[in-house]
Design a protein that fits this description.
There is one protein chain. The chain is of the alpha/beta class and 332 residues long. It has a single domain, classed as Alpha-Beta Barrel (TIM Barrel), CATH 3.20.20.100. It has eleven helices and ten strands. The strands form two sheets. It has an eight-stranded parallel beta barrel, surrounded by six helices. Helix 6 links the parallel strand 8 and strand 9. The radius of gyration is 19 Å and the shape is globular. Bound molecules: NADPH dihydro-nicotinamide-adenine-dinucleotide phosphate. The site of NADPH dihydro-nicotinamide-adenine-dinucleotide phosphate has 30 residues, from strand 10 and helix 10. NADPH dihydro-nicotinamide-adenine-dinucleotide phosphate binds next to strand 10 and helix 10.
């Protein structure tokens, strides 16, 4: 039987999520990769319990994570039942709907029909009574934002979720849905957006919206799916995301990545006695602008290494300048 480490809350930092009452662990664990139907159940259990033992309280899922779509939720549900059930009130579990999940006109995007049905399916797959955060996963260009906001509000008011979030929304739509939700009495808790040294779209406006609206912020792909680690400095290892033929990180993409720049960043990390993965996470969290950063992992050791980054001193202005110099205008 799993018993959580008693020291877990001493190992993590917790940041307030926007102007809400909720705090999130500075690092969260995402289940996009390595939690599907053909992945090792023992390994995923180890990853989740290792994360919780290190004070990670937030686990990020979506209806479509797998493959097959839905299998990450099923696997997380099994881990909950077998290991984490006694700790439910210590966990922030999120799911999302927005991308394709089932055939026909109600299986994706942002209608009330899709969002409420998908949330019910996700609750069934995970066996949970409620989600802590339920997200609209991507903006829908056709459904009126008023309908999507009303569906999210209903999901909270009907007891299916405690808070709502959005992901992949631009500035204007974020501002609009935030105002709609506030007027309905369900303030927008959090915005989930891609953010790493090479992908910095949020810096040009979204961060200002989050601050003025009091919305929390959570970054995904902080390690650019593994590119911002020492993983690919000497080719593509067979057990890596690109080596396992992920459609999201192809060998082509790795081969076209600015490996010399990544190697130069790695040198700064080594000089300060840490790994590039650790430095990339510190960089994402710098200045306290992000509430949390969602890491992915393929083994528990990566999670242990990544959480240890939080014990390191903050990046100095000189180190930050050096990083900017190396990056130049490089985008992935
Ligand atoms: P990362 O950028 O953190 O990449 C994770 C990968 O980096 C791991 O699978 C592993 O690759 C490698 N890695 C992690 N730690 C280390 C380490 N210490 N040393 C070497 N390599 C390391 O995040 P993800 O791309 O996995 O995304 C994280 C989460 O964000 C997802 O699970 C999901 O919850 C969320 N997300 C949300 C999206 C949205 O639209 N809202 C879109 C995408 C993600 P390897 O497997 O090769 O070992």
């Amino acid at each position: 039987m799993y018993i959580a480490d008693k020291e877990r809350y001493k190992k993590m930092k917790y940041n307030r999520c926007g102007r809400s009452g909720l705090k999130l662990s500075a690092l969260s664990l995402g289940l996009w990769h390595n939690f599907g139907s053909s992945d090792s159940f023992d390994n995923m259990t180890d990853m989740v319990t290792t994360a919780f033992d290190l004070g990670i309280t937030h686990f990020d899922i979506a209806n479509n994570y797998g493959p097959y779509p839905g299998s990450a939720e099923e696997n997380f549900g099994k881990i909950m039942t077998r290991s984490l059930a006694p700790y439910r009130d210590e966990l922030i579990i999120s799911s999302k709907a927005g991308y394709w999940m089932w055939d026909g006109p109600y299986g994706e995007w942002g209608s009330r029909k899709y969002l409420v049905s998908s949330c019910d399916q996700s609750l069934k797959r995970t066996g949970l009574e409620y989600f802590d955060i339920f997200y609209h996963h991507r903006p829908d260009p056709e459904t009126p934002l008023e309908e999507t906001a009303a569906a999210l509000d209903y999901i909270v008011k009907s007891g299916r979720a405690l808070y709502v979030g959005i992901s992949n929304y631009g500035e204007e739509a974020t501002l609009k849905i935030s105002k709609l939700l506030r007027d309905m009495g369900t303030p927008l808790l959090i915005h989930q957006q891609r953010y790493n040294m090479f992908e910095r779209g949020i810096e040009n406006g979204l961060q200002k919206v989050w601050e003025s609206e009091g919305i929390g912020s959570i970054a995904f792909c902080p390690l650019a799916q593994g590119l911002l680690t020492n993983r690919y400095l000497n080719g593509i290892p067979a057990d890596s995301r690109a080596g396992k033929s992920s459609v999201f990180l192809t060998a082509d993409r790795v081969n076209n990545a600015p490996i010399a720049k990544i190697a130069a960043l790695n040198e700064i990390a080594v000089d300060r006695g840490m790994s590039l993965a650790q430095m990339a996470l510190l960089w994402d969290l710098r200045g306290g602008k992000m509430t949390s950063v969602i890491i992915g992992a393929s083994k528990p050791q990566q999670i242990t290494e990544n959480v240890a980054a939080l014990d390191a001193p903050e990046l100095t202005p000189e180190e930050l300048d050096k990083i900017e110099e190396i990056l130049g205008n490089e985008k992935l």
